[in-house]
Amino acid sequence: WRHSRPTLSSARREGLSSPTPARFSRDTGARHGIPSPQQPQGANALNAIKNPRRDALLAAASGPIEGFDVSSPALYEHQAWGPYFARLRREDPVHHCPESRFGPYWSLSRYRDIMATEVDHATFSSEIGGIQVIDQPKDLQRPSFIRTDPPKHDEQRKVVQPIVAPGNLAKMEPLIRERTRRVLDGVPRNEEFDWVEHVSIELTTLMLATIFDFPYEERRKLTWWSDVAICDVAAEDSPVRTEEARFEILKEMAGTMSGLFEERRKGPPKFDLLSMLAHGEATREMPLREFMGNLALLIVGGNDTTRNSMSGGLLAMSENPGEMAKLRANPELIPSAVSEIIRWVTPVIHMRRTASRDVEIHGRRIRAGDKVVMWYVSGNRDEEAIEDPDSFRIDRPKVRQHLSFGFGVHRCVGNRLAELQLRILWEELLPRFEQIEVLGPPRRLYSNFIHGIRSLPVRIPG
Ligand code: HEM
């Protein structure tokens, strides 16, 4: 599956593009003469673009709160989720949706309620019903350690943890930097190209191939499997149309990987994920479905999330030229900017748990077996936990205090690796390119799980 990249002209046909490119540069674009003071700049230019579907979704956010169904992927595809969650946090922080495409479910929208749920894994299980609001069909289950509770969870997590230990990350840094430089040096100049395809996908796929020690020339298979593993089969441009088709492709993935797994098992233990799984006591004898599930977890975990932080970070900077100028003037702010990008983008929209017993939160009675969805996108905009949360501020205090990596026993294994990749990207990007013009709005993924950008047209002068 290849993303069908919208050209700027096709976006214009659909009324989605701006007449003026949004730019950012060392001096916020002012000296480059475009846009002129009369024309909308940065965020304003992109926000001025007409999107009737988004307008309709935003208007519905002032309707009766009982009717809210925040699991609708269209809310994320059109970036219309903000006002829904603002109302839920204020008026109904433990909201029940009795009917949706995914069945009935509870929504937690406040930062502190999400944290409290994350740490109480005995009450809010990942194993009973999985981690997404959508259920995996009973006969097509693919267990993995993110879908288990302690103690099994802890044993399997321990096996892969060394890949992201500080010492190993330090060893990986020169290779990540060298690959990042190569990708950035190869991007087109003076012509429109898709940042997602040329930079975000390429860099994250290279990284995945590295941590799996997967054949370099076949690395795009990893991207394909990852896209298949997380897509919403109901999306118009979904790479697969049914859960059965998804299962078949993931079975093919397991087939390809099992050859490598066997090779690694016969060899001495090495520092790549497949070798770790092949030698780990808790993982070396996994049944096929569990092998499929854990591979998909590690591929999606290391791919879609970081990819979208790379695209979303560029977009956020172009929408906030003042922050971009601040970063250029103070490159020591890069680590802090990276954390703010990850909060701002919130690449994983939600995680779901299932109540293992009857429980009450803020007076609402949740029954054993009910789905409880923790909306990270909302927690990361909770004004009670984060100061001025709707502003993108690269030097905000306590910048690592966000929910994008989750919390508790399942807190993202790869968080330091993701931060490292993003730090290197910005360290290499700033001195290389004086200006990157974002030429039109992003095309976003139809998904309530991955906050994805499918394409982002840009141009780099020079
Ligand atoms: C778990 C987000 C990068 C591997 C998670 C969770 C979130 C998350 C929200 C679930 C946390 C919870 O339930 O409390 C992100 C974001 C990333 C990122 C936003 C990038 C910006 C990575 C990378 C890897 C990775 C690079 C590669 C190794 C995993 C794994 C888990 C996980 C294996 C399961 C952990 C467990 O269940 O114990 N991630 N992730 N992630 N992530 Fe990441």
TrEMBL record:
PROSITE patterns per UniProt = CYTOCHROME_P450
Does Repeat count among this protein's keywords?
Answer: no
The record's section on SUPFAM superfamilies has:
Cytochrome P450
The cross-references to Gene3D superfamilies, in alphabetical order and at most eight, read:
Cytochrome P450
Q: Which GO terms describe its molecular function?
A: heme binding; iron ion binding; monooxygenase activity; oxidoreductase activity, acting on paired donors, with incorporation or reduction of molecular oxygen
Q: Residues annotated as region Disordered?
A: 1-43
Which InterPro entries does its entry note? Cyt_P450, Cyt_P450_B, Cyt_P450_CS, Cyt_P450_sf
> Mind listing the UniProt keywords for this protein, alphabetically?
Heme, Iron, Metal-binding, Monooxygenase, Oxidoreductase
Stated role:
Cytochromes P450 are a group of heme-thiolate monooxygenases. They oxidize a variety of structurally unrelated compounds, including steroids, fatty acids, and xenobiotics.
Q: Which family does it belong to?
A: Belongs to the cytochrome P450 family.
Q: What is this protein called?
A: Cytochrome P450
